[in-house]
Amino acid sequence: MGQRLELPLATCPELRAPVLLAAFAGWGDGAMAGTNALQYLLSKHQAQRLGGFDPDEIYVYTTTRPVTLRRENGERELVWPSLELYACPLPAGKQDALLLLGPEPNLRWRGCARAILDAAIRCKARVVIVLGSYWDRVTHLGRPLLTARAADHITRDALIALRLPESGYQGPTGFTSALLEACAQRGLPAAGISARAPHYAQGIAHPKLALALLETVQRLLGLRFDLAELEGASREYERLLTQRLQQEPRLWRYVQQLAAEQGQAGEVDDLARGPWQKIVAASPTTEQPAPAAESDLPSGQELVEAVEEFLRRSGRER
Length: 318
Fold this sequence. Notes:
7-stranded mixed sheet; two-stranded antiparallel sheet
């Protein structure tokens, strides 16, 4: 444990002004939107694995457990948690990407952050962006709401230009904070961008949040991704989730009121209007749901029970 931690690279290909995009499943990516965003890029672009950490060095297996899979032939395979780096050429743009994803490390955060930056700098990365998500009092309707934080003043100014609000959170934190601090110490521009996930829809994938994160990265850094399939999945996600929620009148009324409170009732998406376009709150439509009386809204327990039943039905019908 006294040895310097390393992220060994099998190769380091020539990439064009690469940006390191990272996501760590766990504390900082509770809804898995950041992880799903990078997994989508892995599936759409010709990504090449460059290397990964020895899991014994960074994971506690009673916390981040290995997974047993049963194959079609009946044999079982033990899959260990892994934090791996990929090269991701982006032919549609002028820059490429490095993708780092896996469960959040349990051990040696400072050493792990240093090792990540050593590998990124070796591959000539110029910027680090960490994508994540957390549960909040927002809805799946309208434009997803994001927060951000920067490790340097230049990136902070860029986030302000996009009108991405800075998180005001203080308290126990995740590995993202350790990595951003290491970037600041090394003079590497860096930011963390998080999607606020609807708290009433846990246990399902949120392609709309993954799409919003990748669209924001495009606007922020000028990268170009192939997002066509993710856009389609995002529209279907909103349609199906709305359809399901409408089957629970009190829950649907709660979601409508929450959308009005959060400025998510409109359909205007300024994010799609070009590079560095300001991201502003969606304008409420003229036909907003009337505020519900407190007695009309579900209690906290009723809300939890309705959501659990909704998710059980969704799982059975998929």
